[in-house]
Amino acid sequence: MKKTAVFCLSALSLSVAMAQKTTITVAAFPAVDDIVKASLQAWQAKHPQVEVKVVGREYADHHTAMTTALATSTGLPDVMTIEYGYLGRFAQSGGLEDLDKAPYQAGQYASKWVAYALAQGRSAQQGQVAVPTDIGPGALFYRHDVLMKAKLTESDLTQSWEGFIQSGQKIKKDTGAYLVAHARDVKDIVIRTGIPTGHGVYFDDQGKSVIDSAPRFKRGFELAQKIRVQGLDAKVNAWSNEWGESLKRGTVTTQMMGAWLGGHLQNWLAPQTSGLWRSTVLPERIATSWGGTFYAIPIKAVHKELAWDLIQHLTLNSKQQQMAFEKFNAFPALIEAHNGDFFNQPVAFLGGQKARAEWKASAAQIKPTMVFKNDSVAEEIVNAELDLVLTKNKPIDQALKDAQRLVQRRASR
Length: 413
Prior knowledge:
Layout: H1 2-20, E1 22-28, H2 32-46, E2 50-56, H3 59-72, E3 79-83, H4 87-91, H5 115-120, E4 122-123, E5 127-128, E6 131-143, H6 144-149, H7 154-158, H8 161-175, H9 184-190, H10 215-229, H11 241-249, E7 254-258, H12 261-269, E8 277-280, E9 289-296, H13 304-316, H14 318-328, H15 355-365, H16 375-392, H17 396-411
Parallel strand pairs: 1-2, 1-3
Antiparallel strand pairs: 3-9, 4-5, 6-7, 6-8, 6-9
Helix pairs in contact: 2-14, 9-10, 16-17
């Protein structure tokens, strides 16, 4: 009887313990979902009573699902992953916790994260709605073999935008390769140049569109038009099948994106081109951000304190941040994680170049810019107007005025 009683008591205790086990949910997109999964063993050693469910969706599907979840307050995760391009929209939804407030008090860790990335997760109205986990310092990736055939050097591409375009002319003449995949790529970099403190790419600190007043937009449109008129772009969009093929075959010489593109090229876009690519600074040594990943906590999440504890593990743990960089090419937002030996190791895919040190230097020069609710709307309108300039010869001044009018109209709704 005693053995039976002990057995029953033990079974009851186990049942109670299992019943008390807490499940928190993390919603993410590739490869952030894999990074979270890889980090869980260490975190769950401190929280054995917590099970973490990682819900991974493709990039677009994830953000669509999170948009719906915030709008309806249903299907909300405890930890929400947000890519930079969606920050403004999500920040203004009013559905995310201000992480500067108790019990989070993220402000005490502000000096630990890259300053410009932390600023991107801040909304003037809603506070610190997200904290960064990885960043995308802008870089120029180029086909070294194509440059050699054209008898050009890296500095020919980077000294000035005019020199960049002249190099494209020689590349086209000597090798038949295009300079860039799409003229829009150049515009995207130029309009992110020289943004005043407290302003965003498309809006000033008062939320007013600056598209027809900031000179960077006119210059970006003019350079893109020159590239198109001279036949230097392949007219293919990033992430299309045609774009991927152009990177594999070397029919496009350069691609300007975040430093993370190197990992994508190596792992799945063009692994067979190892040794043919190099990375360098953007033309005119522009230091700008291209993407990045953030974690947020919905106001109506169920397990907020556990969610914040996990976010701290993912973003403030140096070993975790370095692991994410080494295994998944997620460039650390944590400054302390920039001191590892990994940064000084040669990158075989980039011909043995020590590219990570240069990416780190670029990240340190990027100035903070703000995000706004209508950034994605403004980007869509500006791109549509640029397409009219490139394909219909619409006057640039008129295109910028029309873009300004349309953005202001949409923003005032």
